[in-house]
Design brief:
This protein has 557 residues and is of the alpha/beta class. It is built from 18 helices and 13 strands. The strands form three sheets. Strands 2-1-5-4-3 form a five-stranded antiparallel sheet, sandwiched between helices. β10, α8 and β11 form a beta-alpha-beta unit. α14 packs across α17. The radius of gyration is 27 Å and the shape is globular. The two termini are 48 Å apart.
Length: 557
């Protein structure tokens, strides 16, 4: 479906919104609105004689390197004879040196009079992880595109270029070729499955064609159904950033399962790489399949039988069959040994020697089994599963949140005349000591080696990404508190007691503070910023005329 790719800096900025507000005050240029949602739309063609090629890129000015085009070509079609010809959708990611990009691929076969079989894929390239939204868009536009071709594609892109920006928390109406979609852009503070949806259709909403309950969530139960006896172990593996391979019969099942795995630790951000659909032609193929070093922290979704041999040294492999919700309760299967996985024809299951840290929660399994027996709707099953994962993740992360909050200096330590104080150092030993009285046992009834799970997690990319995000958030809070402390001082009186050189230095530092607050989006009240601007102007006006002219020209006071 659609997903975002890590740039040189690592994971999707953990704890941050996937979108940013457009620069305030700058006039919009042609395609600016389009670029806020999509990088481009591609059409990839394949025929038996000529192979595959990117036939169309729209808007025409969109840039893709030759390497990126090659990746898109191979990722836009099945990597094996999986029998998935026909209309299907799946998602893939590819690496870009300039940053993260997401690709949502709609693969449709199209007969041509001159060739025995001619296939085409319509691909949306985006940095946004709005899988469900882009899937809906493709359902609307793909069938007509293959009938009307490029003129229709241009009209689609023109519609997208009229969309408002994807500001987190906003409810938007998005028109696309005569259909209006109503949706809400999630924020990083939203909990899984709890995004408020405006279901009430008022008179003003009479033109709304559809309301999307989510823009980014997948059908968890459908994805985990083949292996739901092992969901708790899979949660641990994803939490710890362990190398995982999903072997599936089709790109659609591969990509949806990988996306489900990544989302199961939400609201914690998965901070390693993940490839919902990965092929033998991928430019990172050698990097991920080498045996000269340990497998990297990545989740791969594959369909080609060749991977059963190439990746047999990976420690954890999930083999899934066709995603069909069974009418009967699935039989419980034991975790299988890796040596038993020979080909992609092996039986579905989890192949690993991993021993979970936590005791198995039998209640969630019984609850899901009962749902299958009672033919509970898959949406309800997914909601149960999502709530289970949410509660498990929150029980795990709350003790860390509580300890990290204690690293924040007290507000009384913040002096307007000194640099903001530094956060105290994270001590693994000190954190472990807090678990005895304030550990996960306060919110979870699960028993097991929680200490061992935390020790392992503290070495993982997910902890590193989470802690960096919390560090940034708390550092910005300290900067904001420092600004407030400055505003509460009588700065004009201070300047009268000091030399002109010291006063000019103060003015320049205060101006830099204002620039920093705007640049880094510090959590500062608008009134505080206005008050600081007033202080700066009052200090400047108390200086000699020549200094006033110079300081007023160096920036807006």
């Amino acid at each position: 479906m659609a997903l975002w790719e890590r740039g040189a800096g690592g994971a999707a900025e953990a704890g941050e919104d996937a979108t940013e507000e457009p620069e305030r005050g700058l006039p919009l240029l042609p395609w600016d609105r389009f670029s806020a949602w999509l990088h481009c739309v591609c059409v990839v063609g394949f025929d038996l004689e000529l192979g595959q090629a990117v036939e169309v890129i729209y808007p025409p000015h969109s840039k893709l390197t030759d390497k990126e085009k090659t990746n898109i070509c191979y990722l836009s079609f099945p990597d094996s004879n999986s029998g998935c010809l026909g209309d299907t959708q799946f998602c893939f990611r590819f690496r870009r040196s300039s940053g993260r990009k997401a690709s949502l691929c709609c693969f449709l076969d199209h007969l041509d009079r001159d060739l025995p079989v001619y296939l085409k894929s319509l691909v949306l390239i985006s940095k946004l992880p709005y899988i469900h939204l882009f899937r809906t868009v493709l359902k609307q536009i793909a069938p007509e595109y293959f009938e009307k071709s490029e003129a229709f594609l241009e009209a689609v892109c023109s519609d997208v270029d009229r969309w408002p920006p994807p500001v987190p928390g906003e409810v938007l109406h998005l028109p696309i070729m005569g259909v209006v979609m109503k949706l809400r852009i999630p924020t990083y503070r939203d909990k899984p499955g709890t995004t408020p949806v405006v279901q009430n259709m008022h008179q003003a909403d009479a033109q709304i064609s559809m309301t999307l309950p989510t823009v980014h969530e997948v059908d968890l139960f459908r994805c985990f159904c083949p292996v739901f006896f092992h969901i708790q172990m899979l949660w641990e593996l994803v939490l710890l950033g362990e190398p995982l391979v999903v072997m599936a019969p089709s790109p659609a099942e591969s990509s949806e399962t990988v996306l489900a795995l990544v989302s199961c630790i939400s609201p914690l951000k998965y901070c390693s790489d993940f490839r919902p659909y990965f092929t033998i032609h991928d430019s990172e193929f050698k990097e991920y399949t080498t045996r000269t070093q340990a497998p990297p922290s990545v989740i791969l979704g594959v369909t080609n039988p060749f991977f059963a041999k190439t990746l047999q040294h990976w420690p954890h492999i999930i083999r899934i069959g066709d995603m069909k919700l069974p009418g009967d309760v699935p039989k419980q299967v034991k975790v299988k040994k890796l040596k038993n996985l020979k080909t992609l024809d092996s039986k579905p299951g989890v192949y690993t020697s991993y021993k979970p840290y936590l005791n198995k929660d039998e209640e969630i399994v019984k609850q899901l089994q009962k749902g299958v027996q009672q033919k509970r709707p898959t949406e309800a099953q997914s909601a149960i599963l999502r709530r289970y994962f949410l509660e498990l993740t929150e029980s795990f992360i709350i003790p860390l949140e509580r300890y990290v909050a204690s690293l924040m200096p007290l507000q009384k330590c913040i002096s307007p005349w000194k640099s903001p104080p530094q956060l105290r150092h994270f001590s693994q030993d000190d954190f472990m000591k807090t678990l005895e009285k304030a550990g996960p046992q306060l919110t979870s009834g699960l028993k097991g080696d929680w200490i061992g799970l935390y020790r392992h997690f503290l070495k993982s990319p997910n902890f590193d990404g989470w802690f960096r995000s919390r560090q940034k958030e708390m550092t910005q809070k300290l900067e904001a508190l420092h600004l407030e402390a400055l505003c509460n001082e009588n700065l004009v009186f201070w300047s009268q007691k000091h030399t002109e050189v010291e006063t000019v230095d103060l003015v320049l530092k205060l101006k830099n503070k204002l620039l920093q607050a705007d640049r880094e989006h510090l959590p500062v009240k608008t009134d505080t910023l206005k008050k600081l601007q007033t202080h700066i102007r009052d200090i400047i006006l108390a200086l000699p005329d020549d200094l006033q002219d110079i300081l007023l020209k160096t920036g807006t006071a």
